[in-house]
Amino acid sequence: MSRSNLPLPDAITRETAASPRWLSIVGIGEDGVDGLSPAARGLIGDAEIVFGGRRHLGIAAALIRGAARPWPSPFDGAAEEVLRHRGRQVCVLASGDPFQYGVGAVLARHIDAREMLVVPAASAFSLAAARLGWSLPEAVSISVHGRTLDLVRPHLQPHARILALTSDGEGPAALAKLLAETSFGASRLTILEALGGPRERIRATTATGYDFGAVDALNTVAIEVEAGLDARVLARTPGLADDLFEHDGQITKREIRAVTLSSLAPRRGELLWDIGAGTGSVAIEWMLADPTMRAIAIERRADRAARIRRNAAAFGVPGLELVEDAAPAALASLPAPDAIFIGGGASAAGALDTAARALRSGGRLAVNAVTLETEALLLTRHAAFGGELLRIGISRAAAIGGKIGWRAAMPVTQWVWTKP
User: Fold this and answer.
1) Residue 201's beta-bridge partner residues?
2) Across the chain, how many H-helices and E-strands are there?
3) What is the pLDDT of residues 208-220, one digit of tens each?
4) Is the bond leading into 20 cis (omega within 30 degrees of zero)?
5) Which of 30, 241, 311, 412 has the smallest number of Cβ neighbours within 10 A?
6) What phi, psi does 281 have (nearest 5°)?
7) What is the pLDDT of residues 276-325, one digit of tens each?
8) DSSP sequence for 100-115
9) Which residues of the chain have pLDDT under 70?
10) How far from the centroid of its chain's Cα atoms is residue 33's Cα?
11) What's the whole-number average pLDDT of the chain?
């Protein structure tokens, strides 16, 4: 069957001179070529070049009539390798759904979707949900394949359902260990191996009771979260408890942090600079707002920088970038931010000006001041550039002699400015 008469919808097969469809991406499940549609088989057979992992190329060997090309090592150069053959009939083999943590998403960053013809197979998540009777929109789907297990931490909410792709046969045991050590040991784990193929196997246990032997390298772990009394459950609102962070006292306190995050107004996919990051608490909560959020923490002290790294891992945002240097020198080569928070070092010569220049148009700048010197600087900036000034005072009930009274924390002056 040739590409021209494949039974595909007109909307898919229609080509234009500006964007001919030269690249096909075919998802293959554990059932191999037996699970492929006639259209998918035709795309593989018609291709002049077929890219894929050695395993997939072996599975589809009987269908391949063109040149079989295993992925380069390292994989980082895969998209460039495919692009070298633009205009020829190229097919890429992928696992399951190519756009579910797959090669399709990688290629789409470099190749227009109008140049592609994609035939997905069922993803591991879809197959797992089908076996468990779970609603996919109500479950959290994450991949820890080649990534740190810490990514699961923000999703450990009571009674949550999580589907996690792991890297190998050791992944389920490592996840069970993490859960058991963080008071989520009663959580039910279902290990789904080689879904959709003849080696499929499903086993269930608790995190504490996990004692399975060998597990297939192709596995998905389903977690039904049960939180113990002292489990580290992260609240969904800004202003997480201070004692959740490792700190030396140099931390933006929870109430001030909640107001600060409101002033910074996180929006999907944005980048924050956290200057004078201390514990990294503002940058961490910024990243927790949405999986697409990015942040760079700037901290000159090595001990605090190490603490920021540990906090980022503990909160499940290992992607937090860290620059160990002082502003303004540390800001010179950083990508332009959508928002900037200055919690320390605002009075350093040139720091505030450099930050303001780097901010994107429409970006937000929030600066907190405790000392009179920094407050005076913010008053001057407000008079010159406008924005909003806030005075934040917090009092906490504390023992005074044998009674209880209010003990005031140091007030914080905050200047918030949106760049025109």
Assistant:
1) 193
2) 12, 19
3) 999 999 999 999 9
4) no
5) 241
6) -60, -40
7) 999 999 999 999 999 999 999 999 999 999 999 999 999 999 999 999 99
8) SSSHHHHHHTTS-GGG
9) 1-19
10) 33
11) 93
